Amino acid sequence: MARTFYVKAIWDPEAQVWCSESDIPGLVLETATLAEFETLARQFSSELLAENLDLHGPVPIRFEASGGFEVLAA
Fold it and tell me: Domain named DUF1902: which ranges (predicted)?
Protein backbone atom coordinates (compact mmCIF):
# COMPACT_ATOMS: atom_id res chain seq x y z
CA MET A 1 0.00 0.00 0.00
CA ALA A 2 1.22 3.51 -0.83
CA ARG A 3 2.37 5.88 1.87
CA THR A 4 -0.26 8.39 2.99
CA PHE A 5 0.88 12.01 2.96
CA TYR A 6 -0.81 14.86 4.78
CA VAL A 7 -1.71 18.46 4.07
CA LYS A 8 -3.08 20.67 6.82
CA ALA A 9 -4.57 24.15 6.44
CA ILE A 10 -4.01 26.26 9.55
CA TRP A 11 -5.82 29.55 10.00
CA ASP A 12 -3.58 32.51 10.93
CA PRO A 13 -5.91 35.06 12.52
CA GLU A 14 -3.32 37.86 12.49
CA ALA A 15 -2.57 37.58 8.78
CA GLN A 16 -6.11 36.45 7.91
CA VAL A 17 -4.83 33.60 5.72
CA TRP A 18 -4.74 29.82 5.60
CA CYS A 19 -1.15 28.51 5.87
CA SER A 20 0.07 25.02 5.06
CA GLU A 21 1.73 22.32 7.06
CA SER A 22 2.63 19.20 5.10
CA ASP A 23 5.05 16.34 4.69
CA ILE A 24 5.07 16.81 0.91
CA PRO A 25 8.49 18.27 0.07
CA GLY A 26 8.20 21.80 -1.29
CA LEU A 27 4.50 22.32 -0.55
CA VAL A 28 4.08 25.79 0.96
CA LEU A 29 0.73 27.53 0.62
CA GLU A 30 -0.88 30.70 1.92
CA THR A 31 -4.37 31.59 0.72
CA ALA A 32 -7.26 33.85 1.67
CA THR A 33 -9.92 31.13 1.46
CA LEU A 34 -10.11 27.48 2.38
CA ALA A 35 -11.58 26.62 -1.04
CA GLU A 36 -8.58 28.21 -2.77
CA PHE A 37 -6.25 26.37 -0.38
CA GLU A 38 -7.76 23.00 -1.26
CA THR A 39 -7.62 23.70 -5.00
CA LEU A 40 -3.96 24.71 -4.87
CA ALA A 41 -3.07 21.84 -2.50
CA ARG A 42 -4.49 19.33 -4.98
CA GLN A 43 -2.68 20.93 -7.93
CA PHE A 44 0.72 21.42 -6.33
CA SER A 45 0.70 18.13 -4.38
CA SER A 46 0.39 16.23 -7.62
CA GLU A 47 3.22 18.15 -9.25
CA LEU A 48 5.55 18.07 -6.23
CA LEU A 49 5.07 14.35 -5.54
CA ALA A 50 6.01 13.60 -9.15
CA GLU A 51 8.92 16.05 -9.34
CA ASN A 52 10.46 15.62 -5.88
CA LEU A 53 9.67 11.99 -5.04
CA ASP A 54 9.18 10.44 -8.49
CA LEU A 55 5.70 9.23 -7.51
CA HIS A 56 3.09 8.65 -10.20
CA GLY A 57 -0.50 7.44 -10.14
CA PRO A 58 -2.87 7.61 -7.17
CA VAL A 59 -1.29 8.79 -3.90
CA PRO A 60 -3.40 9.01 -0.73
CA ILE A 61 -3.37 12.40 1.01
CA ARG A 62 -5.04 13.16 4.34
CA PHE A 63 -6.40 16.73 4.33
CA GLU A 64 -7.26 18.65 7.51
CA ALA A 65 -8.22 22.23 8.29
CA SER A 66 -7.66 23.75 11.71
CA GLY A 67 -8.77 27.12 12.91
CA GLY A 68 -10.89 28.89 15.41
CA PHE A 69 -12.86 32.02 16.04
CA GLU A 70 -14.35 34.05 18.81
CA VAL A 71 -17.96 35.01 19.23
CA LEU A 72 -19.56 37.62 21.39
CA ALA A 73 -21.87 35.71 23.71
CA ALA A 74 -25.30 37.26 23.94
Answer: 5-66
Instruction: Please give the C-alpha separations between residue 71 and each of 42, 52, 56, in angstroms, as whole numbers.
Output: 32, 43, 45
Does the residue 71 lie in any domain? Answer: no
Q: The domain spanning residue 20 has which CATH number? A: 3.30.2390.10
At 10-65, the pLDDT tens digits run 999 999 999 999 999 999 999 999 999 999 999 999 999 999 999 999 999 999 99
Let me know if residue 58 belongs to a domain.
yes
pTM of the predicted structure, to 2 decimals: 0.86
Rounded Cα distance, 60 and 6, in Å: 8
